[in-house]
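The pair is listed for reference:
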Amino acid sequence: MLHLVKPLRSHLRHLRLAHFKAPKPPESPPKPPNPPQKPETFTLHDHTWQDPYSWMSKLNDKVAMRHMDMYMEQEDKYTEAVMYGTDRLQSKLQSEMASRLSFDLSTPPLKFGPWLYYRRVEEGKQFPVLCRRLASLHDEFISHKSPSAGFDFTSGKRIEQKLIDYNQEAQRFGGYAYEELSEVSPDHRFIAYTMYDKDKDLFRLSVRNLNSGALCSKPQAERVSNLAWAKDGQALLYVVTDQNKRPYRMYCSLIGSTDEDVLVFEESDNNVFVNIRHTKDFRFVTVNTFSTASSKVFLINAADPLSGLNLVWQCEGIAHCVLEHHQGYLFLFTDAAKGGQSVDSHYLLCSPVDSSSSPRIWEDVFVSDPDWVVEDVDFSHTHLVLNIREGRNFRLCSVALPLPAGKGPVHLKELHPQFLPLPKYVSQISPGPNYDYHSSKMRFTISSPVMPDAVVDYDLSNGNWKIIQQQNILHERTKVLYGTASSASISEKTLNTHNLNSANEVSPDDQQLWNDLSEFYACEQHNVSSYDGVLVPLTVVYSRKNKKEDQNPGLLHVHGAYGELLDKRWCSELKSLLDRGWMVAYADVRGGGGGGKKWHHDGRCTKKINSIKDFIACANFLVDKEIVHEKKLAASGYSAGGLVVASAINQCPHLFTAAVLKVPFLDATSTLLYPIIPLTAVDYEEFGYPGDINDFHAIRDYSPYDNIQKDVLYPAVLISSSFNTRFGVWEAAKWVARVRELTVYDPKRPILLNLTTDIVEENRYLQCKESALETAFLIKAMES
């Protein structure tokens, strides 16, 4: 969602990041800025309304943008004045958070073919370096403290090969190095990657020769959204977007050839989007086209990428479709409707590659089992790994390949799946790149609210598992298992699945191997009854040492959109709140993930109100059960989660004392009706089509900007926004101005707008500074 909007004025991109160093204290409470009102009237369907601050979003109006410049400077000064006196607290918080940053020597080396690929940061450099070394080299030639210093005394050569220095890339792209895509060719001779061009607001494709380090003369396309290697690395397929950022054309470039790139496919329908990927064995390239009307999957023979596209699947409506190939069979993982009836979860289909039937016949691989819902799959040459959800709990298992043929759908339990060990309270399982199709190992990142993310390699051939990287919070250091430097740690972390209990968790004796923090931080899970009786999962985390009955302040997080999981991973920044006696809670409201497609659909579009009501129910639960003090509850939402929080504040302003909104979606009516940034069909499916009268009225009912209560005291709110965000800074600025205009003014309940710049995303210390500001704001709000 980032890097999609150019700045209004270039100097605003470099607003001062060292917050709140006011030279002298204010003698009286500072007065908030009062931007000019320029009412504009809008009419749609049977409704007419006025927007006094619509001028803030007129990016092409030079006069309006000059006013916007002045207004943003006023907001910056006002935030500085309000937060005066917290500079020492912010400095302390920033030091705490910075001390917990993991200083990784490198990312965990990833095996792909004969090579180990990894990124590392050189001393004194801002951006990392992509490197590789041969996996066959002896471990004793590897230096752990300085990987680049590794030396093979037999051959007399350094073992490390530098592939891309992103500090040099930053020089090519105006001091900024943001990479979106990167793919190493199957023959390991080239790497194709896209870098963000800040001046042109697009991603540019480059191909680099890994043997010489030189950039290839072609392709060097712009506006690239997808890429896939073909012809064993001799050809590259890539997709470009139109001016509205819709992926629509696919080209083929022959590496080393002087011929022009060939247009392989073009989608002329402005409502249809194109996406490509290669199968893990590099035998095929799949081409997905999708719109609200239909979804299709085409197959390209990677050995002959110009031989044409073969349609292998199509269905009505938008469907998630991932195609893989294994030993002569195509496997399709999809959530498409069956027999015209919507399904609640994904399922796996298979069909022979050489099938001659028209249309192609697909068969279910597994018998549907409501107790074991398949959330994701991954293939290797010998195993199929499945991420399974059992109720609200995640499990990870593998079955041997090939699967039984000619028997029709089978029960997964009949295949005797080998369950892989997991810690307690798993909130998310994220697959690693797992490029090496022929490896017996698969990598996953295991997340928990009370455990730092663990990068784990599972050996599917024998059930052994190994934590490759995980920060040890208790000792404020990071364990990076690189080479042989931590061989003792490696042996400690290597366990067999025989150590599992019935819930596929490791035994209590082995739980400590995960660096689990549950001895110090408790994790409680509740089911909260919403307004209509639906049970909403609520997770509460707190410090066992610092909890006080009915006295604790609390922070409630929410997302609730796009069917995405709420991020409940352990966050080291939140440790500063937990250690100060705060309760940190997570509301898995409808509209989000983890409960199937129905859970998602029951919180989107005309049913968006369910997300908001669920969130309010969870907030009331925390207060009613005295988990959080009734006057010390704060809320937090990012992007679409900001919409949920702001809408809940509109409905129950008395319920919250403070809120932090990060790049929030606040002006739903204007954004959906007159998008400044092109929106996709998925966005409209999520929030509604204003052209549809029922959707329009639903949007008007939930839109935070259009439902601010008059003459009511609102909580203190800190909004962080920037100019490089999908929901532009004008949305935050309009909402802030409107709230101040309509609600009761109280200097103890300020409405603040904090402007950030795009470089914060790539700088962990600036992230700490922003987090310290947000945390200080919450503490100050509770104390006042």
